[in-house]
Specification:
Blueprint: E1 5-9, H1 14-17, H2 32-44, E2 51-54, H3 58-71, E3 75-77, H4 95-109, H5 123-141, E4 150-154, H6 156-167, H7 173-176, E5 184-189, E6 195-200
Parallel strand pairs: 1-4, 2-3, 2-4
Antiparallel strand pairs: 1-5, 5-6
Helix pairs in contact: 2-3, 5-6
Length: about 220
């Protein structure tokens, strides 16, 4: 296998700035700063990806559009790789709402995927829609012997849960280390199956576990 899967968090939105629980598709657009982040990300790639994908959310489509403009690789929208759906807490930004979501989200990372966000998704729901897409990308693009990475523009909370499940990187590292806008998680497919995480935002292996929570918007 000669390529890796690079999960890219979208650029900044007004929802991120306001620390909103903003998950419903299509969602809010990029800010000017978010657009600049996406342009910079695309321009900084050392080589164009083999293929470029994004979620159906507006912020992901806009981010991927700037990457397409920089690389010339056409973007394809995929279903199932949108953000964790927070149901009744959609649009909230209070400390109580953040704390409630984080309690549920930490439970997923610690193994209790059955806990459900009120009116929203359980951890099982998120993985059930997201993981088949990942495996399909692996089969189509990362097992054919040709070089090149796959880029998927997605969302922080979903990316972290999926990567924790695929690679075995464990909490509290996975729950405390949020992703900044346009930061990546890079997954290398193992020849015998499974994935190895080779980058998580600013970090590379070995991933430390004795870390304090980072300050970020709730979906990071």
């Amino acid at each position: 296998m000669t390529g890796k899967l690079i999960l890219v968090r979208h650029g900044e939105t007004e929802g991120n700035v306001a620390k909103l629980l903003d998950t419903r598709v299509p969602g809010l657009p990029l800010t000017e700063r978010g657009a600049a982040q996406a342009k910079t990300f695309g321009a900084s790639l050392s080589r164009p990806p083999k293929a470029l994908f994004c979620s159906a959310a507006l912020r992901a489509r806009q981010t991927a559009g700037y990457i397409e403009a920089a690389t010339g690789v056409p973007v394809e929208v995929l279903e199932g790789v949108h953000e964790v759906q927070v149901g009744e807490m959609e649009g909230q930004h209070s400390e109580a709402a953040h704390a409630r979501f984080q309690r549920i989200y930490r439970a997923w990372h610690e193994g209790d995927l059955s806990v459900r966000v009120p009116g929203g998704e359980s951890g099982y729901d998120v993985l059930a829609r997201f993981l088949p897409v990942i495996e399909d990308l692996r089969t189509k693009f990362l097992t054919d012997g040709t070089e090149g990475d796959i880029l998927l523009v997605s969302h922080g909370a979903a990316m972290r849960l999926v990567s924790r499940n695929l690679s075995g990187v464990a909490p509290p590292f996975t729950t405390n280390n949020h992703l900044d806008n346009t930061e990546t998680i890079e997954l290398l497919p193992r020849p015998v199956g499974g994935w190895e995480c080779i980058r998580w935002g600013r970090f590379t292996p070995p991933f430390g576990y004795d870390v304090a929570p980072t300050a970020d918007d709730p979906m990071g």
